[in-house]
Hints:
By secondary structure, chain A is mainly alpha-helical. Chain A contains two helices and no strands. Chain A has one domain. The model of chain A is unreliable at about 30-35 (pLDDT under 50).
Amino acid sequence: MESLNKLARVAFTFVMMNYAAVAGLFALGRGRHVWK
Amino acid sequence: MGTGRVFWFSAFVIGYTYLGYPLLLAAWARLGTRLVHKADITATRNWPSISIIVAARNEGARLPGRLDNLLQLNYPGRREVIVVSDGSTDNTAAAVSRYHGRVRMVEIEPSGKARALNAGVAVATGDILLFADARQRFAANALVELVSNFADPQVGGVTGELILDAEGSDSGSTIGDGVGLYWTYEKWLRRNESAVWSTLGATGAIYAIRRNLWQPLPAETLLDDVLVPMRVVLSGQRVVFEERARAFDRASMDAASEVRRKTRTLSGNYQILAQEPRLCVPGVNPVWLQYMSHKVGRLFVPWALIGTFVTSAVLASSSWFFMMAFAAQVSFYALAALGAILDARDRRKHSTIPRVIAEGGRATSWSH
């Protein structure tokens, strides 16, 4: 069970990071407002 | 292009970025490591002067601990510490004023980290510029270990190692564990890229460059810790990874703040391609292959994931192979969904612990 949870954590992080790559592209246009 | 070709191309992008390139890099580093001719830190007498620049906004609570840390580090040469307050409205000025004569304070209107760094460098007098954040702490020998690399004339920049508390242990947080693992992988790539010639970026929490290689940053820059080192590399010098120069930090404790931080990082990776198009030109960028494989490849992977998912779904009814490929991806995303549930559970658990309150400001902090 513990190794399944570990795998699930890695899979979740991988998906979140790839989601961030797409979100990053769309965020670029409004970057200054979002990040400054 | 046929549906099958889209599948295979997408699978190649994912496989090359996360498996093929690391294997290629490992082999390359094994066959062609380029040593750094460091100074012997026990024998060297002529240490260059360094300017440590800390850009901060509303970090009054953290600064005293941070400045004590920077002033107590071992370093035989001359050092100056410069704090640039980027429109702080808290007690930042009062916190720094306690270090009168030892720390220089520069106050600017709120205009972002890039302008804060430009303002800090404008008043810096050291031969080496070292950039640091308010949040982390350095190990006692971090400065000497970092600066000893500049004895090699080919070295234009050095990045230290950021140790996250989640590495190699259970952080008690789903995203914390995931980030710890990711960061371990990322540092492995960085170590090997450094061995081959140069890293492709630095750790914002601890990196240094020769002063003569500094170019003012565009005000809207999101990733100074990639743009600054890559400009050093484009100038023909290398940026190396010094594992013995250590900074310490905590991994994100919740997925939302980590995604915000990561979105900013990846947004910055797109931005840098526009700021420095030379990075995409083979022969002009000395680490072109590594940059395309590591940094640009990551930008294509999410689209490739969509490509493999959609094409295998379309072809599943016509081939056992594509049906298995589709089932494998569905299983993977189900596993990720389980990870999301675990993350939500962790957050509920941690929301009762005061530590999370203290971590609350991390989401708006500048990235490491």
